[in-house]
Structure formats: structure tokens, C-alpha cells
Write a structure and sequence with these properties.
The complex is a heterodimer of chains A (about 220) and B (about 180).
Chain A (H helix, E strand, L loop, with lengths): L2 H40 L9 H45 L4 H68 L1 H30 L8 H11 L6
Chain B lengths: L14 E7 L3 H13 L5 E7 L15 E7 L5 H7 L11 E6 L11 H10 L4 E3 L5 H18 L8 H7 L11
Parallel strand pairs in B: 1-2, 1-3, 3-4, 4-5
Helix pairs in contact in B: 1-4
Classes of the chains: A mainly alpha (about 220), B alpha/beta (about 180).
């Protein structure tokens, strides 16, 4: 019967504290709002006549800035509270020695997991590096093969050009012309010898040397 | 005192006041009841009115949030006239439009696009709800209570303007055919 009013008083005290803390937070926030209104009213409106679209884009960029600053601030707050928590934990552990085994277990688990995370991150980084190297090599090989093919192409084109030029040069033309002239004279001489031997009415089949000559004359000279 | 200004009075400790404006009293009463039933750390005060300007004879606390409840089968003019009596500083996150009665399509005299355009012109959030159904009303009451807390400055780190930028709709409503 005596403990209950004490507990009730404690609860009420606790409630009062939480109410006061809440009121404090509220007043801070409301003060911030009033201050920002005052600052906003002090700012002069821009002199130029900005178009609505420009104003909208400007508003958007300003909002993005605000969001970035807010997230940075929140992250910093998180880091700060984390640091505070870890230092409070450290103090607590120093004071209570190793009685709180649960806490020690949790801390050990955290350490193990962190190590695991670090090693797996390291592995993934190495794998990514290897992948990058392989890709670089592939790119180099591709480029080299491209160059080689280009060289082959240019060589082929050169050869073709040379062949064409050689075929169409004048020297060849005169040589061909001379060849033809020579062939014509040889045929004429052959016919002359043939008619000489036939006209002399000699039996050329009997003499083997004469036979050979006549047969040779039969060979028509053609283009090589 | 014909124009409502957001910051001309000091706030009361731990109290938040919302003003519901609509021509339909029954709906407003129901909505007010649902809002008061919500579990909230700060004390809520709900004021109901048919239109602005408010009579200046009554002493009233600082108003943190104005909700214009628009029913799609009644006229629109009332809302537009009331909007003239609201200071422009209110539209930085302390005004909200709530549309109801979209379920009864045959009675709609105001098109959905008109309301969307109104909300876009005044850069305020637009909520849709069927206030006749109990569960939907409870949900929207919860949302409004949360918005009210933020607009009254009871939530550290978030202000009405922040909430506005978070609730912004991505694109303006399509043009009427």
C-alpha cells in the first residue's frame, strides 16, 4: 500500500519530464519557424520580371539544395549519436566489468560481422578489378585486330593498283606490238620455206632431216 | 481583420488548431469527430465554418492548418470566395484541399480537373476521400492530424514547407478537353 503511491508519483514525474521535453522541442521548432518568416520578409523581392517557368525551375533547384543539406545534416546527426552511444557503452562496460555477458556477446557478434563485411567487400573489389583488366585486354585486342585488318586492306589495294598500272603502261604496249610484228614475220618466213621445199618438188618424206624441218614449219606460231 | 494571417498570434503550448471549411455541416462534424478520436500527443482544437471571412468578434487561437473540404456535387464558388480571405503566407504548407463525394458520379457538377487545377494554382496538396465511409474517414483523419502536428511546429525537424515539398505532385493536371 505504501509502494503504490510512490510508483504513481514516479510515473507522474516521468510523464511531466516527457511533457517538458516535448514542449521544449515544440518551442524550438516554432521559434525556428517564426525566425525564418522574419528572414523571409526581410529579403527584397527581385527587381527583374522573371517568367513563371524560370521561377519554377529556380524554386526546384532551391528545393533540391534544401533536400541535400537536410540529408547531410541527418547523416551527421546519426553519426554523432552513434559516437555518443558507443562512448556511453564503453563507459558502461568499464564500470560493470564483464558481468553483462549479453552485451559482450552482442559486441563480439558485431565485430565478427564487421570483419566479414570488410573481407567480402575486399573480395568483391578484387573481382571487379580483375573484370576490369580482362575487359581492357579485350578492348586492346579488338583494337589491334582492327588495325591489322586495315593494314591487310591497304596492302591489297596497293597490289591491285600496281597490277593495273603495270598492265596499262606504255612499255608493255610497245613490247606487245613488237612481239606481234615478230610473230608475223616468223609466219611469213615459215610459209616461204614451206613453199620453197614444196615448189622444188623434192621428196621430203624420204630424208629424215628434211621431214623434221617440214613438220616443224607446220607448227603455227601463236601467242605464248 | 478580414484576412487570415498565419503568424499574427503566438502559439499556445502543446495545442494545435485546425480550421475546416465546407458548406456541408454534417460531413464536417463527422470529420471533426474522427480527428478528435485520433491518438495524439498534443491537444487538438477543431474549428468548423461554412465560409471565410470569420467573424472577428470571437477570440480564437492561432490557426495552424486550413482544410477546404470540397464536395463534387455542390458549388465551387464558396471555396473560391473564401480563398480570397486567406493571406498568401498560409499557402506555404498550411492549406490543404480535401475532395469528397467522387463516388456518386452522376451528381458531380464540378469536374475533377477543376479541383486539381485549383490545387495546382495554389500549390497546395490535394487529398481525395469518401467521407461517408467510416474507415476511409478515419484514415484521412489520421493524415490530417499528422499534417496538423507538423504545421503547428510540434514535430521537430519538419515544417509545413518541408511537408509541402515532399507532397508535391509531379506534374500539373492535364488541360481540359
Amino acid at each position: 500500500m505504501e509502494l503504490r503511491p510512490e510508483r504513481a508519483e514516479e510515473a507522474r514525474g516521468g510523464e511531466r519530464i516527457s511533457l517538458l521535453l516535448r514542449l521544449r522541442a515544440q518551442m524550438k521548432q516554432q521559434l525556428l519557424e517564426y525566425k525564418s518568416m522574419i528572414d523571409a520578409n526581410e529579403e527584397k523581392t527581385p527587381e527583374q520580371d522573371m517568367q513563371e517557368k524560370q521561377m519554377e525551375t529556380k524554386i526546384e533547384s532551391l528545393e533540391n539544395e534544401i533536400e541535400d543539406v537536410k540529408t547531410a545534416f541527418d547523416i551527421k546527426n546519426l553519426v554523432l549519436s552513434r559516437m555518443q552511444l558507443s562512448s556511453a557503452l564503453k563507459n558502461n562496460l568499464e564500470n560493470t566489468a564483464t558481468e553483462s555477458s549479453e552485451l559482450m556477446d552482442d559486441l563480439n557478434d558485431i565485430l565478427k560481422l564487421n570483419k566479414l563485411i570488410m573481407t567480402s567487400q575486399q573480395e568483391s573489389r578484387e573481382l571487379e578489378k580483375k573484370l576490369l583488366d580482362v575487359r581492357k585486354k579485350r578492348l586492346q585486342l579488338k583494337q589491334a585486330s582492327g588495325r591489322k585488318l586495315l593494314e591487310i586492306q591497304t596492302e591489297k589495294n596497293k597490289q591491285k593498283e600496281e597490277l593495273d598500272s603495270v598492265e596499262n603502261s606504255d612499255k608493255i604496249k610497245t613490247m606487245q606490238h613488237n612481239l606481234q610484228m615478230e610473230m608475223q614475220t616468223t609466219t611469213v618466213v615459215q610459209h616461204v620455206f614451206q613453199n620453197l621445199i614444196l615448189g622444188s618438188k623434192v621428196n621430203w618424206a624420204e630424208d629424215p632431216a628434211l621431214k623434221e624441218t617440214v613438220l616443224q614449219l607446220e607448227k603455227i606460231v601463236t601467242m605464248i | 481583420m478580414s484576412v487570415l494571417r498565419p503568424m499574427d498570434k503566438l502559439p499556445d503550448l502543446n495545442k494545435a488548431t485546425v480550421l475546416l471549411v465546407s458548406t456541408e455541416d454534417a460531413l464536417l462534424q463527422q470529420l471533426a469527430d474522427s480527428m478528435l478520436k485520433e491518438d495524439c500527443a498534443s491537444e487538438l482544437r477543431v474549428h468548423l465554418t461554412k465560409s471565410l471571412p470569420l467573424p472577428s468578434s470571437v477570440a480564437r487561437p492561432r490557426i495552424d492548418l486550413i482544410v477546404f473540404v470540397i464536395t463534387l456535387h455542390s458549388s465551387f464558388q464558396n471555396v473560391e470566395e473564401s480563398l480570397h480571405h486567406v493571406d498568401s503566407n498560409f499557402f506555404l504548407g498550411k492549406v490543404c484541399f480535401l475532395v469528397t463525394g467522387a463516388g456518386r458520379d452522376s451528381h458531380c457538377s464540378v469536374h475533377r480537373n477543376t479541383v486539381a487545377k485549383l490545387a495546382h494554382t495554389y500549390r497546395s496538396p490535394l487529398l481525395f476521400c469518401d467521407l461517408e465511409v467510416e474507415s476511409f474517414r478515419a484514415t484521412v483523419a489520421q493524415r490530417l492530424v499528422r499534417m496538423l502536428q507538423i504545421c503547428a511546429g510540434h514535430v521537430p525537424g519538419v515544417s509545413g514547407l518541408n511537408l509541402l515539398s515532399l507532397m508535391r505532385s509531379p506534374s500539373p493536371p492535364p488541360e481540359e478537353l
